[in-house]
Amino acid sequence: ADYDVIVIDSPPSLGLSMDAGLYYGRRRPNEKPGRSGVLVPVQSEDSSADAYQMLVEQIDDLEEDLHLEIDRLGIVVNLFDSRRGYIATSSLEEWHNLEDQNVIAVVDDLKEQRETVRLKKPLLSYVPESKQANVMRLIVAGAGK
């Protein structure tokens, strides 16, 4: 009741912890579509596309098994670097071309994000005015609409 938006970014998992997160992100009775749901971080690479498809199947199964509605709020392409060449750029294009999802943000692969992981500090505390921090704020603002 104290939060409008909660963003949990954790290591990839398609097990029980993901089921629990998806369950709590479900649409509640009398809730408008898009107020709760799943925002999926991906990378511009083939393995991320494969994992995304497995996640979609897990969401579909959970919705069917538990009679839930889980709204897909969009995709965030993380750690994007066009200098990685064709794989990165063509994968980004494929994310943009998905028919059932929108890319709501592309987060560039900049050193600040890796530094925060190494220092075990939140990005918004370590470099609050960085390009990545500003994109994160836009993501949360968009998720709260």
Structure characterization notes:
46% of the residues lie in helices and 14% in strands. With 145 residues, the chain is α/β, with parallel strands linked by helices. The protein has a domain at 16-109. It has a three-stranded parallel beta sheet, with helices on both faces. Helix 3 links the parallel strand 2 (72-80) and strand 3. It is globular, with a radius of gyration of 16 Å. The protein starts with 15 loop residues before the first helix and ends with a helix.
Number of helices: 6
Query: Roughly how many Å apart are the termini?
Result: 16 Å
- Gyration radius, to the nearest Å? 16 Å
Biggest sheet descriptor: 3 strands, parallel
As laid out across the biggest beta sheet, the strand order is: 1-2-3
List the uncertain runs. Answer: none
Overall geometry comes to globular
Strand content: 5-15%
Give the tally of β-strands: 3
Mean pLDDT rating: 86
Structural class: alpha/beta
Short précis:
This protein is of the alpha/beta class and 145 residues long.
Secondary structure elements and pairings:
Blueprint lengths: L15 H9 L13 E5 L3 H21 L5 E9 L5 H11 L6 E6 L2 H9 L3 H4 L4 H13 L2
Parallel strand pairs: 1-2, 2-3
Q: Which properties best describe this structure?
A:
3 strands; single chain; globular; alpha/beta; 145 residues; 46% helix; 6 helices; three-stranded parallel β-sheet
